[in-house]
């Protein structure tokens, strides 16, 4: 067997490849979810190594799609934020699906944020009405929330009317608001969770899986779609009083730090009612929705999302530099 070199893509290579552009990332996620629906993209259950404090963990997400099998490896420690470091870092190992050879290692921290944002933006496209501008509430002003807002704006430039941001760390909220204003978005800092949630049609939760749930049904008055990137913010009643529950994978239901999984386990929500985004992409929910119905979208981060985007970056690099 002729040895082929193991390609290494740095963060700069990934950026240069163009896969972080919202339209590219959304297109790759759309195709990945369709491949999942067709049964040709598959994830195996993730494996978590927990190390002490809440949120300090390493997670391996194996998946296979097209001619690739791979694993996303992500290390996170919320403590990093106190030292001005990113909370999480990720890389992806890509192997040939047929013969098992390792083909590329891809620095994937920015891929993780881009794929999360792209799947969240697809949820907005499929689950919210994109006919009229809406206001966005953000709780947790980190990397994921910024990427989400950026992607929705890139996809639908005239759709986001205002963005209201709450973060426990005031400077993080102020930083996100400033960044959004620089992009021409009408953004304001909220003084409380309620202010960032109540009456905003679309709410994004991007805090920390370690939190005690704090978003109550009363806070969710007027909210049409909750995009839960962090999965443990809603109280069980906030989940139970919603009208529809959508996710990207049923692995969510086995996850301890998931509000929806808890509501299912307690019997408040029947597991049969949990819908998959890939099915609704074919049969959208955004048409005739009952007045006042609230959808909770739990964004379960599948390995195939990162692997698909990392593989796209690798293929683009090889196409441009002929390294395959
Ligand atoms: N679903 C997915 O696929 C996926 C992908 C990436 C990240 N995540 C999760 O999303 C969350 C956010 O990720 P990130 O990379 O943007 O994190 P980040 O650390 O960059 O930002 C999180 C922000 O939330 C704030 N925060 C924490 N608790 C809060 C609370 N109770 N109220 C208000 N603000 C609060 C922090 O101060 C911080 O600014 C994490 O829990 C992460 O595990 C999920």
From TrEMBL:
Pfam families: OCD_Mu_crystall (PF02423). It comes from the Bacteria. GO terms for cellular component: cytoplasm. This is Ornithine cyclodeaminase. It comes from Aeromicrobium piscarium.
